[in-house]
UniProtKB/TrEMBL annotation:
GO terms for cellular component: cytosol. The keyword Heme does not apply. It catalyses: beta-D-fructose 1,6-bisphosphate + H2O = beta-D-fructose 6-phosphate + phosphate. One of its GO terms (biological process) is fructose 1,6-bisphosphate metabolic process. Residues 205-334 form the Fructose-1-6-bisphosphatase class 1 C-terminal domain. It is found in: Cytoplasm. It comes from the Eukaryota. Keywords: Carbohydrate metabolism, Cytoplasm, Hydrolase, Magnesium, Metal-binding. Belongs to the FBPase class 1 family. Its EC number is 3.1.3.11. One of its GO terms (molecular function) is fructose 1,6-bisphosphate 1-phosphatase activity. Residues 13-201 form the Fructose-1-6-bisphosphatase class I N-terminal domain. This is Fructose-1,6-bisphosphatase, cytosolic.
Length: 341
């Protein structure tokens, strides 16, 4: 019997145990973050279960449609939003919530307020639900200075002020990837235990990758540097092999692959959408935070993504993120264009 392997199998590092271990590095902390995270984890487990049985439970389809009992059906993204909003408020640790699903920010009732702001997309990639492609929840966490005097500016901060960020991917397995600012760790849900177990400790993105990931259908509207970069991926000038193209169209799944295998994910500006498509607060920032924590880079075409300061909660930005060297190559093309302008 391999006792070492057996000890490893039976010494389960759950996400809560991991965060409590991290907490011991901050003697001043009182466990508030651990409580908040356990409520986020609960939301992820609920959404995971709902995604898995969506077809059976007839959760698919448009919000407002009636099911066979004549009851109003909630679309999965609407349901997921409700679950996260309620889980976050009931944690007693939040003061402002910004969700992709809600036009306005939610200011938590003062009696239930804590010191954290959570920005999130409860079910990103929802156009993929009906065909069973991986989708996910994305979240970022800020802390307010004074929970009794919160304003919208507490969330309109640059991404580098985030305390933590993560995503949960609902795919062939349910994987939660988290950074609290000291590296990136991945946890997989063990459905029999109902616990997320550390399966991907200290994720580091390869320095250079062999994959590029972009919606090439938009190519006719790209700017010069993006078009040149993608051309170089296909027809490298340095004798290297061309890169492979992989694009799922579900940011969580595309970023998860990029983190693990390396490469670059691009959602550039184009002539039709000068600000790109992806939202700064709950798509660009959390993924950029994770990418930097894993040793990669995130760039908007003009600046480091985490240096952006959004002026509205649903603002969009172009984004390029992935392996350090690949993003560096793209940055050089933008710099060259600026020099020649
Ligand atoms: P949906 O939530 O509408 O499916 O959009 C998904 C998404 O916000 C992000 O997850 C993808 O990376 C991106 O949009 C895909 O956009 P395109 O369909 O324009 O390629």
């Amino acid at each position: 019997m391999d006792h070492a392997a057996d000890a490893h199998r039976t010494d389960l590092m759950t996400i809560t145990r991991h965060v409590l271990n991290e907490q011991t590095k901050h003697p001043e902390s009182r466990g508030d973050f651990t409580i908040l995270l356990s409520h986020i984890v609960l939301g992820c487990k609920f959404v995971c279960t709902s995604v898995n049985k969506a077809g059976l439970a007839k959760l698919l389809g448009l919000a407002g449609e009636k099911n066979v009992q004549g009851e109003d059906q909630k679309k999965l993204d609407v349901l997921s939003n409700e679950v996260f909003v309620k889980a976050l408020i009931s944690s007693g640790q939040t003061c402002i919530l910004v969700s992709e699903e809600d036009e306005e920010a939610i200011f938590v009732d003062p009696a239930l307020r804590g010191k954290y702001c959570v920005v999130f997309d409860p079910l990103d990639g929802s156009s993929n639900i009906d065909c069973g492609v991986s989708i996910g929840t994305i979240f970022g966490i800020y802390m307010v200075k004074d929970k009794n005097e919160v304003t919208i500016n507490d969330v309109l901060q640059s991404g580098k002020n985030m305390l933590a960020a993560g995503y949960c991917m609902y795919g062939s397995s349910c994987t939660l990837v988290l950074s609290t600012g000291s590296g990136v760790n991945g946890f997989t849900l063990d459905p029999s235990l109902g616990e997320f177990i550390l399966t991907h400790p200290n994720i580091k993105i390869p320095k250079k990758g062999k994959i590029y990931s972009v919606n090439e259908g938009n190519a006719k509207n790209w700017d010069g540097p993006t078009a040149k970069f993608v051309e170089k991926c296909k027809f490298p000038e340095d004798g290297c092999s061309p890169k492979s193209l992989r694009y799922i169209g579900s940011m969580v799944a595309d970023i998860h692959r990029t983190l693990l295998y390396g490469g670059i994910f691009l959602y550039p500006a184009d002539k039709k959408s000068p600000d790109g498509k992806l939202r700064v607060l709950y798509e660009v920032f959390p993924m950029s935070f994770l990418m930097e924590q894993a040793g990669g880079q995130a760039f908007t075409g003009k600046q480091r993504a985490l240096d952006l300061v959004p002026t509205n909660i649903h603002q969009r930005s172009p984004i390029f993120l992935g392996s350090y060297d690949d993003v560096e190559e793209l940055k050089a093309l933008y710099a060259a264009e600026e020099r020649n302008a």
